[in-house]
Amino acid sequence: MAKNELNSLAVSAFCESMAMMLEAGIQPDEAAALLAEDSGAGQLQQAALSMQKSLLLGESLSQAAKTCGMFPDYAVRMIAAGEEIGRAHV
Prior knowledge:
Blueprint: H1 8-23, H2 28-39, H3 43-56, H4 61-68, H5 73-85
C-alpha cells in the first residue's frame, strides 16, 4: 500500500457513503463535499476534498479518484466499471 493511500476501511466507508448520496440524487461534487465535511480531519477528508475539486473541474468520479492518488487501483477500476454500466449516476 502506498504511504498516502487510504486503507481498506476508509475506501469502504467512502464508497458506501458516496453510493448512498448518489442514489439519493446528490451530485458527485456535492456528495464529496458533504463527505469531507462529515469525516473530520484526516486522509478521508483529504481524499474527498481532492475529489471534489476534480469533480468541479469536470472529471468523472473514477478519474477524480485516480487524480486524487489516495485510492488503490482496484477501487478506481471498480468506480470506472460502475460508471461504464451506468450505476455510478455520473
